[in-house]
Amino acid sequence: MTRQPWRVAVVGGGIAGLAAAVRLRDRAPAGTEITVYEQSGALGGKLRTGELAGQPVEFGAESFLMRDPTGAESAAVALARRLGLAERIVHPTVGQAALVVDGGLRPIPGGTLVGVPGDLDRVATVARPAADADTDGGRPLVGPDEDVSVGALVRSRFGDEVVDRLVDPMLGGVYAGRADDLSLVTTMPALARTARVEHTLVGAVRAAQAAAPRVPGAPVFGTLVGGLSTLVEAAVTASGATVRRDAAVRELTATGTGWRLTVGPTRDPELVDVDAVVLAVPARPAARLLAGAAPAVAAGVGALDYASVALVTMALPQPRLPELSGFLVPSTEGLLIKAATFFTTKWGHLRRPDGLAVVRASVGRYGEESQLQRPDADLAATVHRELSAVLGTPLPAPVDGHVQRWGGALPQYAPGHADRLAAARTALRAAHPTVALAGAGYDGVGIPVCVRSGETAAEEIITALGGSAR
Ligand SMILES: Cc1cc2nc3c(=O)[nH]c(=O)nc-3n(C[C@H](O)[C@H](O)[C@H](O)COP(=O)(O)OP(=O)(O)OC[C@H]3O[C@@H](n4cnc5c(N)ncnc54)[C@H](O)[C@@H]3O)c2cc1C
Prior knowledge:
Pathway: Porphyrin-containing compound metabolism; protoheme biosynthesis
EC number: 1.3.3.15
Distance between the termini: 15 Å
Family: Belongs to the protoporphyrinogen/coproporphyrinogen oxidase family. Coproporphyrinogen III oxidase subfamily.
Mean pLDDT: 95
Strand content: 15-25%
Keywords: Cytoplasm, FAD, Flavoprotein, Heme biosynthesis, Oxidoreductase
CATH topology of the domain at 7-47 and 225-304 and 414-464: FAD/NAD(P)-binding domain
Low-confidence stretches: none
Catalytic activity: coproporphyrinogen III + 3 O2 = coproporphyrin III + 3 H2O2
Bound molecules: flavin-adenine dinucleotide
Shape: globular
Number of helices: 14
CATH architecture of the domain at 7-47 and 225-304 and 414-464: 3-Layer(bba) Sandwich
CATH class of the domain at 7-47 and 225-304 and 414-464: Alpha Beta
Largest sheet: 7 strands, mixed
Strand order of the largest sheet: 8-7-18-19-20-17-21
Radius of gyration: 23 Å
CATH superfamily of the domain at 7-47 and 225-304 and 414-464: FAD/NAD(P)-binding domain
């Protein structure tokens, strides 16, 4: 067992890194010195609660899934509970969202898995499935070790319209990417499992739905009163970690007994020796940091590409909005907006007596980064114009607004990602068990998955240092 107290560095102060820090505090030996290094001036990464018109508004992630794919409480809910925030969890008051189809709004049909229907009749209002393409060919849809893109699978069974009008905008709402580029195994693991058994896509969707039945009336999403930054602040406090803001870790060198971190500006670097490292940064900085100690792992990890997005939020005085949580826009509609959320309609706790509405639009799709070169005012004006057109009514001028740019923020898990990652992790564990990877670059993009990956990384470090998880 490593000499005590252990010194563990958590590199990256996003939710994955902070979840790792909390888990280390809970399960590593008492007295373990935990330091979180965050390159920016603020913790939370993609969780950032700002303020607009005097009210907290999410400038990054907005909500989390309440359940994990098995139906159990999600890791985000469990973390909120651990941090004493369970009482703050609230759910959308309006859950119905719409799709833009031929310039107008149509309700998103229910009963799909991220847009992939288990009942073709139910999606007929927005897309015509290809006739009789989903026939039983006498073998499972996907081979035992195979990964395909979601788009390729769904196109081959249901035709283009179901992908272009339903699956693509729904996956794009999460990843800002294209269904044709995204891995089935990583972005839709439940469907990937059943597609290895079932002979039709309808059968695979139904089997996936049956494996994790939804409890009628149980909320799917939650957020926290006061904003998701309250989760970040509570995690920092509970971890008891030393927090170093504006402290980029630029190099990671194996010392034989642990790791040497090079922190801060090149002109005036600080060298810090630790016993173990949780690397909770996006894939590219992780690859740069691993390049010296584990070049093959770095190459595997660094292959992941990212999409950039911008979020345009505006406070509108008493606009006429439909009773919807928001809408998604298929790329075939030719709009800049990818998705819009009517915050003050969707979340009852955000409704205002003065009727001021907060609307947020997301712009930017993978491969269309040039659109994000426009100045803030141009993006905001285009969003305002497009929102008015989709809603069929001119919206009032905003009384407040904010443009948040998230460069290289959303991982684009290509087919084969899970295998590449498994190989990289196995190699890293074998060569350097005192470094563990965590965060959205690996197992999935959602907050619960990132929390879980941070917690798992913390437990790997505890095992590697020779402790037993308390
Ligand atoms: C616009 C947007 C909306 C989203 N909405 C939702 C949502 O509603 N629900 C949901 O579940 N998920 C959502 N997501 C996804 C989710 O928020 C993220 O996947 C998750 O927060 C990522 O957490 P993380 O800790 O892995 O990484 P990050 O949040 O990226 O944190 C990594 C941190 O590492 C720091 N860092 C990087 N390099 C270094 C270095 N060398 N040294 C020190 N620090 C470094 C970064 O500054 C950053 O703070 C959204 C994502 C985006 C971009």
